Amino acid sequence: MGVNRRKFLKIAGISTLGVAAKPAADAFGISPTEWLDQKLGGFTVPETLFHFFEKPAGLVPGEALTAKRWAMVVNVRELDEEIAQACTDACHKVHNVPNFDNPRHEIKWIWQEEYEHVFPGQQHEHIDENLKKLPFLVMCNHCFNPPCCRVCPTKATFKRKKDGIVLMDMHRCIGCRFCMAACPFGARSFNWLIPWPRAGEGKFEGKEPPNPEYPTRVKGVVEKCNFCAERLAKGQIPACVEASQKACKKKGREPALVFGDLEDPDSEVRQLLRSNYTVRRKPELGSNPNVYYIV
Amino acid sequence: MYDGGKIFAGIIIGLALLTFPIWYTSGRAAPRPEVKLPVKEKECVQPKAYMTRKHMQLLDLWRDSVVRVAQRSYVAFNGKKYDMSLQNTCMSAECHAKKTEFCDRCHNYTGVVPYCWDCHIEPKEEKTEEKH
Q: Which of A55, A60, A198 sits opposite B71 (nearest CB)?
């Protein structure tokens, strides 16, 4: 059957509406997908339907620490080897990060690095000797514009909309390691081995994971710092920050790691940023890191 | 027909072997698994019927809610709030403290192997001298 006049007018009308939808949405300053994302609170459409017809999703726990954009300041002047090690140990203990002797199998969430590796391109031959020796603590930068999330084919790694933390969904990771190639900071580690081999009935072959409340990972997934999202939900600050406060207090220093909301002008992080000269790692790449360094 | 007897005998033996699982267990079903329910806690986060039928959907919802949108508090059907956590809430000492006497009984019976425990740490169990 050919298109008659009536049908043509119908199609033309609907097409006009369709073409007009985008500029109309743009006029409100928000794209339709962004609008939908806001409405659904980060869930997908099928998930939202599931919650509507089946069971409601949860609530944010009352005691949780919340922010619009979490950030950290690393005051390298207050760091020494011992304090840095205390921070790493605290983190790796809380998150059941395994300790492999072979550097090719290494898993790290927060670790020490030399100046020239942290700020490549900034070093020169006459640089301050002390600066060379300082243990820079590095971790995932929780970029505002994370390249790892752009490349992830399964959206296993994603930026949490409400507070900007870049997280891993281990259930979805397929171990393709695109994110590791995309991350300019080498903040991600791949599980080449089973991190904590099981022996059944809650027992493990060999060493036990130190924190029975936090899950381990499996062979074949990528992991990294999560800004202690699970601790924030319980109203606790990140483990490394807590460890640095303790270790620094013992030595009579100011805390070397400070954590806070970058969007809150009165937060501790913002106060430090206001009163000190700070740098970020590889800002020229435009990933917009949320970890700042006082050198 | 050449060797008819051998062929038919072969077919009959073959059929008998193929149908072995059917006639060997005929009239007898494997006993239904009995799960051990927690002693202290009397109510789960949803009614029993819902939990038996849809616990995996519930866990899936919990996982998305916790991991992706940080909504970690679940309002149960009786209004109580629970921390959404397989490892720390479901399998806590007061509830399903023994995986082998709860999860595993049905899962083994139906032959499903969920991979939750590749990552999540199951509760430690002491061997009990109980026969079932």
A: A60
CB contact under 8 A, A58 and B66: yes
Q: Which helix (H) or strand (E) holds A129?
A: helix A129-133
Q: Nearest to residue A165, comparing CAs of A196, A141, A186?
A: A141
Task: Spell out the per-residue pLDDT of chain A, length 295, in tens.
Answer: 678 999 999 999 999 888 887 777 777 777 777 777 767 766 777 777 777 776 667 788 888 999 999 999 999 999 999 999 999 999 999 999 999 999 999 999 999 999 989 999 888 888 888 888 899 999 999 999 999 999 999 999 999 988 999 999 999 999 999 999 999 999 999 999 999 999 878 889 888 999 999 999 999 999 999 999 999 999 999 999 999 999 999 999 999 999 999 999 999 999 999 999 999 999 999 999 999 999 8
Question: B62 to chain A: which residues are within 8 Å by CB?
Answer: 58
Is B54 domain-assigned? yes
- Is there a contact between A162 and B87 if contact means CB atoms under 8 Å apart? no
* Long-range contacts at A129-132 (CB < 8 A, ≥ 24 apart): A131/A295
At the topology level, CATH places domain A70-294 in: Alpha-Beta Plaits (3.30.70)
Which residues in chain A touch residue B100, judged by CB atoms under 8 angstroms apart?
Answer: 201
**Is B124 within 8 Å of chain A by CB?**
yes
Number of domains chain B contains: 1
ipTM score of the complex? 0.79
Could B66 and A216 be called an inter-chain contact, meaning their C-beta atoms sit closer than 8 Å?
no
Question: Is B68 in the A-facing interface, judged by CB distances under 8 Å?
Answer: yes
Tokens 């059917």 sit at which residue? B22
* Domain membership flag for residue B18: no
Query: Which pair of structure tokens corresponds to residue A120?
Result: 């490549």
**CB–CB contact B75 A62 (8 Å):** no
Q: Does residue B7 lie in a domain region?
A: no
* Cα distance between residue A141 and residue A282, in whole Å: 11
Q: Domain range for residue B103?
A: 40-118
pTM, 2 dp: 0.80
